């Protein structure tokens, strides 16, 4: 999942980004309101963490413009303005949650996870054939066997399973899972796909990660070949 942190204090922004990345999320950062609006208009984020005291415009103005353009993503306000009036105004403007600075990161992370669950209640668990991904507990099993994945491996697998049957280009995968632009030269996606295949496909007869020539990769349970009817077999033999 991809998050946007809108915070003008670099020390706090770096702390938030490192912590959220360590929890397995892809994170972008914006240092002012204008940059935040540009990013939300060009990228589909799963959640925005928004400071209110920005150098170019009030955070509530940013929130209003995000909501005016489209309904999502969920917005968690993170601000030193902690009076009851401030909290009420933030929620009435369209925020989904409000956390006052100073804060404990574990609480922020819990609120982020709660908002993401609220936004996607029907797909907390993803399933393709006998491969299961618990997006909340970040647990992967195949045929009942637990599979340990590194954070980026999990991010790729979750993204592919949320787009089951849809070919995903290397560019799409990099932009969703990494905080970088795909430059056409890196083979980082191919390396991680090999890692994933070694963990979830190699020991099983049914291969789920498919290479889509000229595009990239997708995950899907291939259809079993149709067995000919007994009458058809006897007719061929005659």
Keyphrases for this structure?
single chain, 238 residues, alpha/beta, Rossmann fold, Arc Repressor Mutant, subunit A, 2 domains, 5-stranded parallel sheet, 4-stranded antiparallel sheet, 9 helices, 42% helix, elongated, disordered C terminus
Task: Chart the SSEs and their pairings.
Elements: E1 2-6, H1 10-22, E2 26-30, H2 33-42, E3 47-50, H3 59-69, E4 75-79, H4 84-93, E5 97-100, H5 105-119, E6 125-128, E7 131-134, E8 139-142, E9 145-147, H6 151-162, E10 168-169, H7 170-177, H8 188-200, E11 209-212, E12 216-219, H9 230-237
Parallel strand pairs: 1-2, 1-3, 3-4, 4-5
Antiparallel strand pairs: 6-7, 7-8, 8-9, 10-12, 11-12
Helix pairs in contact: 2-3, 6-8
Detailed description of the structure:
The chain has 238 residues and is of the alpha/beta class. The chain folds into two domains: 2-119, Response regulator (Rossmann fold); 123-219, Winged helix-like DNA-binding domain superfamily/Winged helix DNA-binding domain (Arc Repressor Mutant, subunit A, Orthogonal Bundle), CATH 1.10.10. It contains nine helices and twelve strands. The strands form three sheets. The protein has a five-stranded parallel β-sheet with strand order 2-1-3-4-5, with helices on both faces. The chain has a four-stranded antiparallel β-sheet with strand order 6-7-8-9, with helices on one face. A three-stranded antiparallel β-sheet has the order 10-12-11. Strand 11 (209-212) and strand 12 form a beta hairpin. The N and C termini lie far apart (58 Å). 28% of the residues are buried. The model is unreliable at 225-238 (pLDDT under 50).
């Amino acid at each position: 999942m991809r998050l946007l942190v809108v915070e003008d204090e670099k020390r706090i922004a770096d702390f938030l980004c490192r912590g959220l990345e360590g929890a397995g999320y892809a994170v972008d950062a914006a240092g002012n309101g204008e940059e935040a609006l540009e990013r939300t208009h060009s990228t589909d984020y799963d959640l925005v963490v928004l400071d209110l005291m920005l150098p170019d415009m009030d955070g509530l103005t940013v929130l209003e413009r995000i909501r005016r353009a489209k309904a999502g993503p969920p917005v968690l306000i993170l601000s030193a303005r902690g009076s009851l009036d401030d909290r009420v105004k933030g929620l009435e403007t369209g925020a989904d949650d409000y956390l006052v600075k100073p804060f404990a990161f574990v609480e922020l992370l819990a609120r982020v996870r709660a908002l993401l669950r609220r936004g996607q209640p029907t797909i907390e668990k993803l399933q393709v054939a006998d491969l299961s991904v618990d997006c909340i507990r970040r647990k992967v099993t195949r045929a009942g066997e637990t599979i340990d994945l590194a954070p980026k491996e999990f991010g790729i697998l979750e993204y592919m399973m949320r787009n089951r049957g849809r070919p995903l280009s290397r560019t799409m995968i990099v932009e969703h899972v990494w905080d970088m632009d795909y430059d056409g030269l890196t083979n980082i996606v191919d390396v991680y796909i090999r890692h994933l295949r070694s963990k979830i496909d190699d020991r099983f007869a049914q291969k789920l990660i498919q290479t889509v020539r000229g595009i990239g990769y997708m995950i899907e349970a291939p259809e079993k070949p149709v067995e000919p009817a007994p009458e058809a077999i006897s007719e061929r033999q005659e």
